[in-house]
Amino acid sequence: MMIIFRQPGANIIQTVDNIRSELPYLKASIPQVRYHYRLGPTTTIRASVSDVERSWMISVAFGHLVVFIFLRNPRATLIPSVAVPVSLIGTFAVMYLLGYSSTTFR
To answer: Which of 26, 28, 43, 82 measures 20 to 30 Å from 89, CA to CA?
Structure first.
């Protein structure tokens, strides 16, 4: 049995994907050993990321729908459609330039 721990600040999903991509090479080089992937937190992490993406898309769609219903003006609906992504991209760009990362907030 071999237990693999990730390094602090490492992307666990990328680490597991890299390990799984190397398993065929290990099986080819040492065929008498049985390889089986048992446990890993990536299943719940992937499900959580998927839920966040889906919730974000639903909230953006409902936000645009509410603006359109109350203002009844396609142009007024287009303004938040452009402003929200631009503000998010700007925020992430400033965070990148200042050296922030996902490990900074842990």
So the answer is: 43
- DSSP readout, the chain? -----PPTT--HHHHHHHHHHHHHHHHHH-TTS-------THHHHHHHHHHHHHHHHHHHHHHHHHHHHHH--HHHHHHHHHHHHHHHHHHHHHHHHTT--TTTT-
CA atoms within 13 A on the CB side of 54: 6
pLDDT digits (tens, 9 = 90+) for 58-69: 988 898 888 889
Q: Write down the pTM of the prediction.
A: 0.60
